[in-house]
Amino acid sequence: MSVMTIEVEEATDPRVARTRRDVVDATAQLLLDEGWDAVTHAEVARRAGYAKATIYAHWPTRLDLIRASIDQICDEASHPPATGDLRDDVRASLADFAHDLEVGHLDRLLAGVIERANQGGVVEELRKRLYETGTRALRAILETHLDPHDVEPALNLLVGAVLVRVSFEGAPASAPFVDALIDRVLHQQK
Fold first, then answer.
1. What's the chain look like in SS3?
2. Is the full-model pTM beyond 0.85?
């Protein structure tokens, strides 16, 4: 039997699919609740209800577990639908981003990749994936309404201000804060 045949069989075997789902779900929840340092094969095995050997067989390193869980988190991410109104759409997108930082523990995921920034490779891919997923909806809104050369600066100002407010200042990105931010950034675009 070739390696390809084994991989196809594993991919279609419902037991393997269930194990992978359970392990990645447990890892994602652990990562969101407690951060990168809490993700160990032993803790994931305990939470998912599988033997450590099973975890190691499919995810040989902690980074493999983290990558799979971040991929799942990004794949399941949702954003408010755009309505076509620039202010309302930017407001909704920033409120969603702030909520993910405050309640969704996006700050823990970002802190993990920032802390490990010098490790390159996979960590750099995860940083990009988190940023692209987190800003995709806002970027699309800005691309629809702004000149192309204004999109990146506006995105950086909006996302950066909310990130600093919530994660570094520990303050909520309240409606008045978001509205004042939008006024300043969009005023620059006129």
1. CCHHHHHHHHHHCHHHHHHHHHHHHHHHHHHHHHCHHHCCHHHHHHHHCCCHHHHHHHCCCHHHHHHHHHHHHHHHCCCCCCCCCHHHHHHHHHHHHHHHHHCCCHHHHHHHHHHCHHHCHHHHHHHHHHHHHHHHHHHHHHHHHCCHHHHHHHHHHHHHHHHHHHHHCCCCCCHHHHHHHHHHHHHHCC
2. no
